Amino acid sequence: MSAPRLTEEQKRAILHDYLSGLPLRAIAARHKVDTSYPVILAKRRGKPLRSARQIAVSREVAS
Question: pTM score, two decimals?
Answer without folding.
Answer: 0.77
